[in-house]
Amino acid sequence: MANFQEEIINWYLINKRDLPWRNTQDPYKIWLSEIILQQTRVQQGLPYYLKFLKAFPRIDDFAQASEQDVLALWQGLGYYSRARNMRKTAIQIMDLFNGEFPKTEKELLSLFGVGKYSAAAIGSFAFKLPLAVVDGNVYRVLSRVFNIDTPIDTPQGQRAFQELASTLLPRHTPDTYNQAIMEFGALQCTPKSPDCFNCVLSTICIGRMEKNIDVLPVKIKSIKTRNRFFAYQVFIDDDNKTIIQERGPKDIWQGLYEFPLLEFESEELIMNFMNTEASKIREVSNVIRHKLTHQLIFAYFIVYSKAELPNDLKPNQKAMPFSNIHSLPMSRLMEKFLESVNPILFA
Ligand code: SF4
Questions:
Q1: Which of 29, 88, 244, 322 could form a disulfide bond with 112, CB atoms 3.0-4.6 angstroms apart?
Q2: Is 8 in the pocket of ligand 1 (CB under 6 A)?
Q3: Based on the domain organization, do 72 and 171 belong to the same domain?
Q4: Can you give the CATH number for the domain in which 63 is found?
Q5: Residue 71 in contact with ligand 1 by CB distance below 6 A
Q6: What mean pLDDT is predicted for residues 87-93?
Q7: What are phi and psi of 304, to 5 degrees?
Q8: DSSP letters for 261-304
Q9: What is the residue with the minimal CA distance to atom 4 of ligand 1?
């Protein structure tokens, strides 16, 4: 155990990436980075971290921002509930904790969007609380080094790994050790091609000795992907106004804006619909495939010939100049279409 801790920390001190949130003990900055980096690679998350810090240098700046401002900054990062929860957390900290981040695990867990992992990360990095982080990297490193095949997506597995991680945590340097094991998983003991030949743990790594690396960590559930078929209606009138709508709750992209959307059961039904609308259609985009964690979206953007905009708008819809829609928070799928579109079409 002592070998494991020492090797991991020594490796980290030599190999760690210089990332801005590692040079601070400010819980606000650490929280910001942790929430942004959930489900997001460092390279992708870094510009967002800097952008958020510039827009909201302190927690009270964040708490005063509108949801639309926060979503606009978050645009392109996915999992928009994280952005909404961050704003709620900032307000919660101002209202319930006098603008100071709480310093106990229990209180950290009471914050919106902060689960066991984030509470351990914020608590250990900012306040040196003895809380062990267990994320995907930690599961991988521990399952391989200790050759554990208990599935990590079961309560039993999660409990076992959490206990092992807590046992291994050095009480005097929980911050450095937690950073070290996650960085080790991200750079050295990677999912597909771990660098076992140049690994400081190769002599104690049981998974390697038993030739089990390829199958560790074990997961029992495979994620099912649901296919969805979207047809966006891009209306445009002689003044280059279009219709845009806000997405509602209980589905992806709540609070983001998009063109009026029709959802179908299959691509074939979209084709049938386009045939019935053929006389009014000016252009149709190629199909855009957009992958989310549990969904694969096949989207067509149907651009109608210039005409009066439909006047029976729904409460969540509004007409606005086409050139202004970029100011609204939108999904990456909408951005993909707008990036591909010929601006002359809307001139
Ligand atoms: S020897 Fe290979 S599998 Fe074991 S910890 Fe090192 S990189 Fe990971």
A1: 88
A2: no
A3: yes
A4: 1.10.340.30
A5: no
A6: 95
A7: -85, 155
A8: EEEESSHHHHHHHHHHHGGGEEEEPPPEEEE-SSEEEEEEEEEE
A9: 205
What is the per-residue pLDDT for 343?
57
To test the ligand 1 pocket, which listed residue (143, 201, 214) has its Cβ within 8 A of the most ligand atoms? 201
pLDDT digits 0-9 by tens, 249-304: 888 999 999 999 999 999 999 999 999 999 999 989 989 989 887 889 999 999 99
Rounded distance from Cα 142 to ligand 1 centre (Å): 10
Are 303 and 199 found together in one domain? Answer: no
Q: Is 303 in the pocket of ligand 1 (CB under 6 A)?
A: no
188 and 312 share one domain: no
Residue 138 near residue 181, CB atoms below 8 Å: yes
Does residue 108 sit in the same domain as residue 84?
Answer: yes
Position in ligand 1 atom list of the atom nearest CA 199: 6
Q: What is the pTM of this model?
A: 0.69
Ligand 1 neighbour 189 (Cβ under 6 A): yes
Whose Cα sits closest to atom 2 in ligand 1? 196
> Considering the domain boundaries, does residue 6 fall inside one?
yes
Rounded to whole angstroms, the maximal C-alpha distance in the chain is 74
The reply to whether 34 belongs to the active site is yes
- Residues β-bridged to residue 244: 318
Burial environment of residue 223 by CB neighbours within 10 A (0 to 12, 13 to 18, 19 or more): exposed
Whether residue 283 lies inside any domain: the answer is yes
Within-domain flag for 11: yes
Please indicate, yes or no, whether residues 275 and 129 belong to a single structural domain of this protein: no
Do both 192 and 237 map to the same domain?
no
Mean pLDDT throughout 25-53?
A: 92
Task: For residues 137 and 250, state if they share a domain.
Answer: no
275 and 335 co-located in one domain: yes
Other Cβ atoms less than 10 A from the Cβ of 9: the count is 17
Compute the distance from residue 218 Cα to the ligand 1 centre, in Å. Answer: 16
Terminal C-alpha separation, the chain: 67
**Per-residue pLDDT at 6 exceeds 60:** yes
Full residue range of the structural domain in which residue 14 is found? 2-215
Q: Which atom of ligand 1 is nearest to the CA of 194?
A: 7
